[in-house]
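TA notes, week 10

Several of you asked for a full example with nothing omitted. So below is the full record: structure tokens for the whole chain, then the designed sequence directly under it. When grading your own attempts, check the secondary structure regions first.
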């Protein structure tokens, strides 16, 4: 983020002849590529991190925005001179960066930390824009400061609307595994999960959707949630059954447990239910505030199927 900021500064004052008679003058032509590189690097890092979640579910829209920005960045070179585009993208990337790094620094993930992260990003970006505007005559000739501030505030408001409707994942938490199993056993701190493994080409899910159920047996929801070191967070499994008569999901139970960050493969945990009804089910994995990490879907069927495997986590 620091490198991107420096690159934008160097580029935006270059038209004023600031680097004329300095060693930087010969490299001015490469600054758009440098900016494009740092935009792409940060965006791709966010895409990779968010893609670690098992089910993007409600956060798919935000993830799609990151994907679009990642690919659009490849065609950004010819338009990077548009300062509205420059600083608009800069603020979006800055906002995403600070909402990730601040929770890691304070070791908490909650709405208050999110608001603080957003305000830091907003103040940082506006200060940077005003600084460039004041020292660069060419920038003053190309943009209206009020229009630029309005653009940044518009992006800020849009992101907060996404957050209000829980369309943004609760970074820096990420759901790495979400499996519906017939049994989970912990032996020497290793979780032995018995489940129906899906076909190899199903990359977005480990278990098969159909779950054969016998009366009196238990159904387990196993998850592993990645969190940076020393972050403690309450995670909840909301078991929901699809009621065909109401044509809607019906909350059956909410079970929570605390996770502690620091494990590369995620903090493991599970919940289970007995005597469940046949039909469509989903386990919504979320934070205490209701921010969704992922949704584990399955269908309970009264069939006799015995193709379970055991995998260690």
């Amino acid at each position: 983020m620091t490198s991107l900021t420096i690159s934008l500064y160097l580029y935006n004052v270059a038209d004023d002849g600031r680097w004329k008679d300095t060693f930087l003058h010969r490299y001015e032509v490469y600054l758009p590529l440098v900016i494009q590189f740092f935009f792409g690097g940060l965006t791709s890092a966010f895409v990779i991190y968010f893609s670690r979640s098992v089910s993007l579910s409600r956060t798919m829209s935000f993830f799609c925005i990151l994907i679009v920005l990642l690919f659009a960045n490849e065609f950004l070179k010819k338009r990077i001179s548009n300062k509205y585009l420059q600083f608009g993208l800069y603020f979006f990337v800055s906002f995403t960066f600070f909402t990730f790094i601040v929770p890691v620094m304070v070791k908490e993930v909650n709405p208050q930390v999110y608001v603080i992260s957003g305000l830091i990003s907003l103040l940082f970006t506006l200060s940077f824009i005003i600084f460039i505007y004041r020292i660069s005559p060419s920038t003053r000739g190309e943009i209206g400061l009020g229009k630029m501030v309005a653009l940044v505030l518009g992006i800020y408001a849009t992101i907060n609307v996404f957050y209000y409707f829980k369309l943004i994942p609760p970074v820096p938490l990420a759901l790495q595994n979400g499996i519906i199993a017939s049994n989970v056993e912990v032996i020497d701190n290793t979780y032995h999960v018995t489940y129906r493994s899906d076909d190899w080409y199903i990359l977005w899910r480990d278990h098969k959707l159909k779950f054969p159920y016998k009366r009196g047996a238990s159904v387990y929801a196993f998850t592993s949630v990645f969190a940076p070191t020393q972050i403690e967070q309450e995670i909840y499994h909301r078991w929901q059954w699809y009621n065909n008569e109401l044509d809607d999901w019906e909350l059956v139970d909410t079970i929570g447990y605390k996770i502690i960050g620091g494990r590369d493969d995620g903090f493991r945990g599970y919940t289970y239910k007995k005597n469940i009804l046949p039909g469509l089910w989903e386990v919504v994995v979320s934070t205490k505030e209701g921010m969704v990490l992922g949704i584990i879907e399955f269908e309970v069927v009264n069939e006799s199927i015995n193709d379970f495997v055991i995998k260690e986590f």
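The longest helix spans residues 111-135. Use that as a sanity check on your answer.
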